[in-house]
Each structure stands twice: as C-alpha cells, then as structure tokens.
Amino acid sequence: MRTSRLQLLAAAGVAVASLALTACQDGTGTRDEGASASQPGASTPSDASSQAPEESASGSGGNASTANGSTGSGGDTAGSGESGSGSGGGGKGPSAGKGSAPGGSDDAPATFNPCNGSNTSVSAAPVSRPVNHMLITVKNTGSKNCDLTYYPVLRFDEMQWVPQPVEESKPQAVVTLAPGESAYAGVLLSAADGSGSGGATGKKLAVGFQGRTPNSDGGPAAIPSLPAAGVYYDSSLTVTYWQSSADDALTY
C-alpha cells in the first residue's frame, strides 16, 4: 500500500509538471516573456535618466561657465576694467594736468576752464621790434577765469604743417586770466638772415587753443584780423608759449 501511494504521488507530480510545461507554451507563458522583456525596457530609461543628469550637469556647467565666466566674471572684469579705467583716467587727468603743465609745474589749476575763441577776443599784429615778429594778444571776455595751456596752434590759410614752439619760452605754470585780463604769445615769422625756405604770404590766420594735455582740443579757434597786405612767413615760423606779459612774449 505504501508503495502504491508513492507511485500515485509520483504520477501526480509528473502530471503537474506536464501541466506547468503546457502552461509555459500557451498565452500565459507569452505574458511571462512579455513581463521579462519589459524589464530591460524599464532599465533603458533608467540608464537614460542616469545619463541625463550628466548631460544636464555638463550643460548647466557650460551655462554656469558662460554665465559666471563670460557674462558674470567677464562682466565683472569688464566692469572693474571700466572702473579701473575710470579711476585710472581720473588719476591720470589731474596728474597729467599738473605734470604736463608748462614747465612741468604742479601749479595747474584744480578746476580747469580753457580759454578759447568762445570766451576771449584775439588780435594778431606785426611789431617793429624785434624784426619779423608778430604779437598775439588774448583777452578774457568771459565772466570767470580761463586758462591758457602750452602755446597757440597757428595756421595760415591752408597751411599743412604746425609751427613749433620755442621751448625756452616755457613758463613755470599755466597762465590763468581773470575776466578782462590779457596774455600774449610772440611769433617769429621769418628768418632775419633769409635762411628760411618756402616763403608765403598769409591772408588768414587761425589761432587754436590746447586743453589740459598737450595737443588736446581746448575749444573753438579764433580768427583774428590780419593786415590787408597779409603777413609774410617762411619755414622759420615759430611761436612762444603763452606769457603773462607782451615783453616776455617778444623776448624770443
């Protein structure tokens, strides 16, 4: 009897195994394969999502670099550069005004107001002594002080060159004119011994003014009247720095 029961149980186990095998071959088995196939599919988004943060991090890193490095840091650098330039300009302005004041003096006015054709009257007249000289006179016609820096920039008619200054005439400080006061510059028109070249007769004269730094624009030029016959000049044409007295201007 015991042996028969064991045989029956064994037969029943074989039957169950056969049913299970049959189930694996029908629609149920297909569903299992589908579920199994869905697992790699689920892992793919997981892999993609695991890469996405890296790409995102790289992207955000690029953006952060662009924002901070180019725009942020660059902007800050540019800002500080402009600020530095501004402060540098501010630092250079006064020092340039003082250091480059005629004679290298530190007496340049703290508040600079250039004399020019808009706040002065200007005359230019040949003188008898010294020979071949002309005197330029500038009078402050404004309501406040104005400053004459360096020397007048002269141009006869369409002259293509600029007369050089007499360096020995450089004063110790900028010439400042109160309202109604005058300053002067002497002009050597031509060589007394005839050694100059390229002689011409000027019919029109423009007197230019310089600003705080050499060769900078000091404002509108003046056009003083000349004698009807004009003024003869040659390659010896030179001009003094601005002087406080006519005698000093005609010394050179």
TrEMBL record:
Instruction: List the keywords (alphabetical).
Output: Signal
InterPro entries associated with the record: DUF4232, TAT_signal
Compositional bias of type Low complexity: which residue ranges? 46-70
Q: What is this protein called?
A: DUF4232 domain-containing protein
Q: Which residues lie within the region annotated Disordered? A: 26-125
From the UniProt annotation, give the residues forming the signal peptide: 1-23
- Could you tell me where the Polar residues compositional bias lies? 36-45, 113-123
Q: Which organism is it from?
A: Streptomyces tunisiensis
Residue span, DUF4232 domain: 115-243
Q: Where is the composition biased (Gly residues)?
A: 71-102
**Pfam families from the xrefs?**
DUF4232 (PF14016)
